[in-house]
Write a structure and sequence with these properties.
The strands form two sheets. This protein has a six-stranded antiparallel β-sheet with strand order 6-7-8-9-11-10. A five-stranded antiparallel β-sheet has the order 1-2-3-4-5, covered by helices on one side. Helix content is 30%, strand content 20%. The longest helix has 22 residues, at 142-163. A hairpin with a 4-residue loop joins strand 6 and strand 7. Helix 1 (13-33) runs parallel beside helix 2 and helix 3 (142-163) packs across helix 6 (272-291). The protein is built from seven helices and eleven strands. The chain folds into two domains: 9-133; 142-305, no CATH class. It holds the Pfam family DUF5996. This is Ava_C0101 and related proteins.
């Protein structure tokens, strides 16, 4: 299978916009039906062998525990209960309004009392339109979704390899439904006071110093897929630090800087996998050195996932 196949945003924009809203519907059900965890780690999707999953959640109001999966091989939504009952329906041929109705119907058929607390898109142009009234977004191209799924799976494995190099507090590899990206985050334990104007999502997500690495599929701001990394809060001088490879750049976004390596630039290299890992490493060290993680004992690098001092010394020798 080709590593990092072509995935121009314009080739699947309408499908992406529909799918993004589908996953927001289910993501908001996950938000309502799962116990809150630090930094909102309970909310994003995780990957399976065929798609993405909410992971088991509930029970809600006396119903059974349940799980909702997107199957991007058979192109179905599947709702399963702990008791083994299941309801599924195709993802093709549905508007967002149809998908919202059919998802709630599937839950009700299994005796599950769960629904989004705010059934509207999050941070999208139609954020004031209820899911139940969105008949505009209805494009679902299975071939395009299959390509998205292959890229998502490959980036997931790459981020797992990157995550293995850090022994400090690290998030799982998450597929975020609100921004439609996939990322992993390294933390220090330094608390970061947030301004009174910060919204609850930001306050919890960035309550500690972080350096994140991830990938998004393109949007109106950056209209092409790209690998990215950033430090929050941003240390002074970050954008002046060099990145690898030379095609990587620091870009300004929402008042701070983010390291970008465009997907097509990575694909064009002799070893895209190694290129992206080197990019993440260069961005991480730019942030870690300026924030003093090394000096505070919070760098905690562990090449190859090895933390045993004897094994690490033997590998180094």
């Amino acid at each position: 299978m080709e590593l990092f196949p072509a995935l121009a945003l314009e080739d699947w924009r309408e499908t992406k916009e529909t799918l993004h809203r589908f996953v927001q519907v289910v993501g908001k059900i996950r938000l309502a039906a799962s116990p809150r965890r630090n930094h909102w780690w309970n909310v994003p999707f995780h990957l399976t062998g065929q798609g993405i999953t909410t992971r088991p959640m509930g029970p809600v109001n006396g119903g059974d525990a349940f799980c909702v999966d997107f199957d991007f091989v058979a192109h179905q939504l599947v709702v399963r209960t702990l008791a083994g009952r299941a309801v599924s329906f195709p993802l093709t041929g549905r508007s967002v309004a149809d998908f919202y109705r059919d998802t709630l119907t599937a839950l009700a058929a299994l005796g599950i009392d769960a629904a989004p607390q705010h059934p509207y898109p999050y941070d999208l142009p139609d954020a004031r339109r209820p899911f139940a009234e969105d008949h505009e977004h209805r494009t679902y191209d299975p071939a395009a979704v299959g390509c998205y799924w292959r890229v998502l799976s490959q980036v997931n494995l790459l981020l797992e390899a990157y995550a293995a190099g850090y022994a400090g507090k690290t998030s799982p590899v998450h597929h975020f439904w609100h921004t439609f990206d996939i990322a992993v985050t390294r933390f220090s334990e330094r608390e970061v006071p947030q301004p009174p104007t910060a919204d609850p999502v930001t306050r919890e997500a960035y309550s500690r110093e972080v350096i994140s690495a991830g990938f998004w599929f393109g949007d109106d701001t950056v209209p092409a897929p790209a690998f990215y990394a950033y430090a929050a809060p941003e240390p002074p001088g970050l954008a002046a630090r060099p990145l690898r490879p030379q095609t990587a750049t620091w870009s300004q976004a929402r008042g701070s800087h983010i390291a970008l390596l465009m997907y097509d630039d990575a694909r064009a290299t002799a070893d895209p996998w190694a290129t992206v890992l080197d990019f993440y490493d260069s961005a991480y060290h730019a942030g870690a050195e300026l924030t003093g993680w090394d000096h505070r004992g919070e760098c905690r690098e562990c090449p190859g996932g090895v933390t045993d001092p004897e094994l690490a010394a033997a590998a180094g020798g």
